[in-house]
Write a structure and sequence with these properties.
Elements lengths: L1 E6 L2 E5 L5 E9 L3 H9 L1 H7 L2 E4 L6 E5 L6 E9 L3 E7 L7 E10 L6 E10 L1 H22 L7 H21 L20
Antiparallel strand pairs: 1-2, 2-3, 3-9, 4-5, 5-6, 6-7, 7-8, 8-9
Helix pairs in contact: 1-2, 3-4
């Protein structure tokens, strides 16, 4: 794989077959067990990610309700609490292309903090742009959820996503097909976030 860019905003790699991988890293001030619960428990998923269910076992089903086109379906491919979770990801109620999502959690040695790595693999360019913008927003919400802080109104999150996605598409076009993210915020904040 060729790495097109790497920064706090994430890394985008393109495979020999043209498929795209998104990779994000975060350092979170919570234990792997606390983060694992946020990644796998339905009540918590609905607070920071999407409403849905994830059957807690290898071979379990994943269903996420994005509010449009039937949501996302998948199957749990790796289940190793609280270290590794991998599932297939099929948008549009199962009609979209299949991709893979992998969450890795590594304690940082202090016992209070964790390195989180999220990889979304086997994507096409357009889907990577859409999902990249969404993953940024979701990963921005996760630490607030873990801290018990309520985030901005969902409409503000949707506005942020649309602006971020538009900016990513422009950058793709300006770099003649090489997706390139630059360090720094993609868009300025929209009003208060609390």
């Amino acid at each position: 794989m060729r790495s097109d860019t790497h920064s706090r905003l994430g890394e985008i790699s393109t495979g020999a077959d043209g498929s795209v991988t998104l990779r994000f890293e975060r350092h979170l001030a919570h234990s792997p067990e606390r983060i694992w619960a946020a990644l796998t428990e339905s009540a918590q998923l609905a607070q920071w990610f999407m409403a849905g269910t994830l059957e807690p076992r290898r071979g379990g089903r994943l269903r996420l309700d994005s509010g449009e086109k039937g949501g996302t379906l998948g199957e749990v491919l790796a289940w190793d609490p609280p270290r590794l979770l991998t599932y297939s990801w099929v948008r549009d109620g199962g009609a979209g292309a299949r991709s893979l999502v992998r969450w890795k959690l590594h304690p940082d040695g202090t016992g209070d903090s964790t390195f989180l790595v999220l990889e979304h693999r086997e994507l096409d360019r357009d889907t990577a742009i859409d999902l990249g913008a969404g993953w940024h927003d979701f990963l921005d919400r996760l630490p607030h959820h873990l801290d018990g802080v309520r985030r901005a109104h969902p409409m503000r999150a949707a506005e942020s996503f649309l602006r971020r996605r538009s900016r990513m598409r422009m950058r793709w076009a300006l770099t003649r097909g090489r997706l390139q993210w630059k360090a720094g915020p993609l868009v300025p904040p929209i009003g208060p976030t609390s």
